[in-house]
Amino acid sequence: MSDLDRAIEQLRACRLIPESQVRELCYKARELLIEEGNVVSVDAPVTICGDIHGQFHDLMELFRVGGDVPDTNYLFMGDFVDRGFYSLESFLLLLCLKVRYPDRITLIRGNHESRQITTVYGFYDECIRKYGSANVWRYCCEVFDYLALGAIVLGASSELEPTSNPALSSMPIDDSELETEVLNSRGEVTMSTYRARQRSSSDASTDSRNISPPRDISAAPGQAAAPLRSGAPGTGASGDGNGSAVTSRTGAVLCVHGGLSPLIDSVDKIRLIDRKQEVPHEGAMCDLLWSDPDEIEGWGLSPRGAGFLFGGDIVKQFNHLNGLSLVARAHQLVMEGYKEMFDGGIVTVWSAPNYCYRCGNVAAILELGEDTSGGGTVARSNGEYGRSNGVVTNNRVVSPGRRYRVFEAAAQDTRGMPAKKPVADYFLT
Amino acid sequence: MANGLVIRVLPTLEPSEPHTFVEPIKKIHESQDVSTFLTSKAYTNIMTWILQLNRSMFPVKLADDTIQTWPLNSDAIQYSAPVRQLQRLLSKLEDIIQEVPPDTGPRRFGNISFRRWCEVVESRASNLLRECLPADLLDKGSSNGGLTAETELKSYFLGSWGSGQRLDYGTGHELSFLAFLGGIWRLNGFPVAGPGVEERAIVVGVFHPYLELVRLLIKTYNLEPAGSHGVWGLDDHSFAPYIFGSAQLSPAITDNDLTPEEGSLENAPDPGGVANANIVQRERRTNLYFSAIGFIYDVKRGPFWEHSRMLFDISGIPAGWGKINKGMIKMYNAEVLSKFPVVQHFPFGSLFSWDRDPNAPLPPSTVHATSGPQARPVAPDSGPPSVAGARPMPGAGTQSVPPIGSTAAPWAGMRREGVPPSMPSGATRAPSALSDTSRMPPGPMAPTRAPWSAQPRPSHSQDGNADVHTKAPWAK
């Protein structure tokens, strides 16, 4: 068993590894991350995760629900550290997994992966408390600077393979495909939505089945719980379904921690950023990590004091211009674990259940399946407009099928009470 | 007094002399301003007021050697008319919650209806204050045609309930309410009584109900912590109850005793009881410290030692509640009053004045006043100094950082003759490089806000109008 495997085993047991090993790990991680572009390309299938914030036991629950690395291909959208009690254990484990299985786990940067933020929100304090010096904090911050800013998921299937579920004995309406599915932590389907297969949007029929009504805040009161829609923005979805002139395709999915930036109108512009630095207070890199979608038009000032608010029109245009069907992001607590907005043009995924021990929220991860139909690969978007292998397309994109696995906070009672440690100087003299 | 012990109290205005009131405004715009604040008259008054209230909560050794304690349900504390009026004011504010039920629509965490609650309170503030405080107190200042005392009191009153914009509540709001009470004191709004008599009525009869109202607001509207560090902070929202509550359980004193710095009241619950739910449930009815701990139990799930590590560690202090009380005051001074993100919102008028206190020591360096808007991103390879325990300085790359241990506590060395009892002269220095606790503004589940932002808006906004949306260059 290699040192790395031993470290993984130790961290999985929520035990820290020695400082010297952290240093070595961070060095290896940087060597690996420096080779990644600002926007990492990831092939479906992939499981997309949101904020973790040091909730180690809940991260273990996430792996239980979503499958282990390397069996499952993971994409974590940042905010591994701060606020929770186990930022070190959580981040170091993810980093070990990254070094051990670089092609099976992708880590991108959140706004908390920053020197300034971690000194304010707890990770720095934790490093001092657990290692007795700031060395480990410094090693980790050096890794933060090399984390990618985003990822593009390619080759996701527009249709989900239905999860076998006794409650859904028969297939839904003819000629429709499973678009979204929500599962609880026991793997039981709690909600499914369907969309018409390759039809014009005007007569697209949708069907939503609520097996147990989820607490979905994305839907307005009185409306069916799931966002109903017939296709991605810009999906006119003509085509006769024979495949001869099928121009619709599953658009790429951009994953970023926060959101969009008024300085970034194409995915390529993200690639031009010099990312290997502390997160700036303003500018494109800052916005990608700090911005939030909001029910506004255009851009708005963010109450966070960094990044912007952006409306549905901004998302539609960005997706359209970049051949994207979906932006997946994290950064905001959502009580139901995920929240789709703007006709499904953007989704927030949140993976820290009962955030800060008190929010009472559930967490979610988003699974995108692989398109095995074979035909879709040609039309895969690489995030650039109007260029897919030289074939001019009319840029019709279909959103990928989306399977959300929702889970709750890990059981608490198994954790023992530690010894009280010497407290701050205030109480010592 | 015997032994020459002078208990300093917050000075009141001379009723017969004219006084010029001013509209309280913010003066702390960047982190350097915090050091100016720490030498201001306002700071001296705030610390004096808190120490005055704190001392009043220590049990008292009576002439017959019996000990009088001050539990929250004490019959021994008489409420004066102003205290009762303030209780009525608080219950009217509570009634407004009924008028503004929490919004049931889609939400993230903080409930948008709290904004409406704040608006209602603001619209009724003048009337509420008039119903509660005598007209000659509120109208003081009108004789010379200027602003009245009401202007200043209202500013602190309205700052006491959390932020309607950010849907959060923290120690800065708690400070504002203490200033509101201190302002009434300065205006002679409380009757003259023996040492500590009116003060403990204020703590038990007004401040505790205030905390209860705030807890109700936090639960009703899901207010986010405005000043916490998650598991590494003292408490998501409050600080003062840990000061006054530890005083309640400290050794008894006479009027001539210095405030104890260690030991506990006989039969006081062990500090370790905070980790025991049953003890917390029992003690929270009578004690402010346990009452605050009890609220944590109400809202948090998970092991206490994990979600409240600082409080858990403090509960292991062997030297008793007196020691905890002393530490809490030092910590409050460093982690609340010396923190830019907390005190930046404090407005200064005439009751709490920005003017320099002539008795204050030279401005100390601003080591505690970090994360101001001047802070710039640090270069990738620069980080906090490697000195163990030293605080990292956001922006360390652009400012010279004096050694933390060298900073004298702002209140050290002043008031030679009236040394606040709990502050042994010379022995009080700013905590050196604690392994770090509280600190900043946006707390746990609050959406993370940029610590370099003085105002909750992007620094790159082209104008100050939050309603104007910047258009993307390519947006139609």
UniProtKB/TrEMBL annotation, chain A:
Pfam families: Metallophos. The active site is at 112 (proton donor/acceptor). Residues 108-113 form the Serine/threonine specific protein phosphatases domain. Residues 189-244 are annotated as: Disordered. Its EC number is 3.1.3.16. CDD domains: MPP_PP2A_PP4_PP6. Belongs to the PPP phosphatase family. This is Serine/threonine-protein phosphatase. It comes from Penicillium coprophilum.
UniProtKB/TrEMBL annotation, chain B:
It is found in: Cytoplasm; Nucleus. It catalyses: [protein]-peptidylproline (omega=180) = [protein]-peptidylproline (omega=0). Residues 362-476 are annotated as: Disordered. Pfam families: PTPA. One of its GO terms (cellular component) is nucleus. It is an enzyme of class 5 (isomerase). Its EC number is 5.2.1.8. Keywords: Cytoplasm, Isomerase, Nucleus, Rotamase. Gene3D superfamilies: 1.20.120.1150. It comes from the Eukaryota. InterPro entries: Phstyr_phstse_ac (IPR004327), PTPA_C_lid (IPR043170), PTPA_sf (IPR037218). One of its GO terms (biological process) is mitotic spindle organization. One of its GO terms (molecular function) is peptidyl-prolyl cis-trans isomerase activity. Its main location: cytoplasm. PPIases accelerate the folding of proteins. It catalyzes the cis-trans isomerization of proline imidic peptide bonds in oligopeptides. Acts as a regulatory subunit for PP2A-like phosphatases modulating their activity or substrate specificity, probably by inducing a conformational change in the catalytic subunit, a direct target of the PPIase. Can reactivate inactive phosphatase PP2A-phosphatase methylesterase complexes (PP2Ai) in presence of ATP and Mg(2+) by dissociating the inactive form from the complex. Belongs to the PTPA-type PPIase family. PANTHER family: SERINE/THREONINE-PROTEIN PHOSPHATASE 2A REGULATORY SUBUNIT B (PTHR10012), SERINE_THREONINE-PROTEIN PHOSPHATASE 2A ACTIVATOR 1 (PTHR10012:SF3). This is Serine/threonine-protein phosphatase 2A activator. It comes from Penicillium coprophilum.
